[in-house]
Amino acid sequence: MNYDYSLTIDYLLDWYDLNARILAWREDPNPYYVWVSEIMLQQTRVEAVKFYFERFVNTLPNIEALAMVEEEKLHKLWEGLGYYTRVRNLQKAAKIIMNEYNGVMPANYEELLKLPGIGSYTAGAIASIAFHITQPAVDGNVLRVMKRVAGSYDDIMKSSVKKELEQDLREIIPSDRPGDYNQAIMELGATVCIPNGKPLCEKCPIMHLCNAYQQGIEMDIPVKTAKKPRKIEDKTILLMERNGEYAIHKRESKGLLAGLWEFPNIEGKLTASALEEMLNKQGLQNFTIENLGEGKHIFSHIEWHMVGYLIRMNEAMTVKEPSFDGYLPENNIASKEKYIWASVKKIDKEYTLPTAFKTYRQCMTN
User: Fold this and answer.
1) Which of 157, 169, 173, 279 has its CA 20 to 30 A from that of 13?
2) End-to-end C-alpha distance for the chain, whole angstroms
3) Angle at the Cα of 249 (from 353 to 295), degrees rounded to 5?
4) Cis bond leading into 222, ω under 30°?
């Protein structure tokens, strides 16, 4: 360890005592609350998580309730947070805890690591905050703060750099307040030593210990290897309305947005005339088309570039053939076997539509 991180302990804890944000999972840091909040906070800001956390734990107050809840209800509770693999792993882990740990979350770092969806950071956060175990919790915030303090140009995208910092912090983390120390670094990274833009160094309790600040290189650190460009996928989204109800379809149980509901969609961007021609060829008649404009949604490795259309179907809609090839190729738009037709109220109450479709979801009318 080239930098003595123990120098930061007292300053960070004193600062945290005065500046920590009041959050439900901090006020009651039981293992379940800490676990759920940490999973929600992956890829999501604290302010956005507050509402979802309250809704989730009010409905599913403990591990047993999480393990028992139906998948559709679970997805609906998570709706708006995205990255649904997180909540599916939550339930998988809950079932394991019920079956193998008598419904009690293991108070052991190594055992926590065995649970689905829990890596070294989440295991460290649960262990230190809920069980007061001296384990570090190193995420992007912690890497950024500590590499700036150390004035280090290490590439924080390398797993070896993360592991080294974990070991450095493991050696100095205070045994009397391990969870508070971890949270103090995270809090500083979220509110002062921020990820985007110039850090608020004048508000930092360890400014005098920070090599990056002293050398004027705080904007150069942390060093991050550029990610590969996201894959662009063009899509045509169909908001199909019939008698006040809209068509939705359940995605496959594997892959992106697995098991969630979606509007009918076609690969590629179609013009209105090309779409009309396609629908006519597939047997649909007596409908109108309205252009709903462009939309974009960014996943971790993929971008959807979309164009949407409202397809209003008349009551006298006819279908020339009983089925269509393909999706649309593989689904018959008019078939109740493949698509569910539901009102806006029912969709909002019962079915989970990913945020990716938000641009067009708001075009639905009651």
Assistant:
1) 157
2) 62
3) 50
4) yes
What average pLDDT does the segment 12-20 reach? 97
**Which residues does 28 contact at the CB level (< 8 Å), separation at least 6?**
none
Q: Which residues of the chain are in CATH 3.90.79.10 domains? A: 231-361
Lowest-pLDDT range of 126-135, 155-164, 226-235: 226-235
The total of other beta-carbon atoms located within 10 Å of residue 197's CB is 7
Q: Is 38 a catalytic residue?
A: yes
CATH topology of domain 231-361: Nucleoside Triphosphate Pyrophosphohydrolase (3.90.79)
Residue positions counted in the chain: 366
- Which residue would you say has higher pLDDT here, 333 or 198? 198
State residue 286 phi and psi, 5-degree precision.
Answer: 60, 60
Per the listing, tokens 């705080």 go with 218
**The pLDDT value given to residue 332:** 44
Integer CA distances (angstroms), 265 to 62, 168, 178, 219, 249, in order:
38, 50, 49, 43, 10
pLDDT in tens, 248-264: 988 887 888 888 899 99
Query: Sign of torsion, CA 127 130 131 135?
Result: positive
Which residue out of 38, 166, 187, 218 is catalytically annotated? 38
Nearest C-alpha neighbor of 248 from the set 256, 236, 240: 240
pLDDT at 320: 39
The fold of 5-215 is: Endonuclease III; domain 1 (1.10.340)
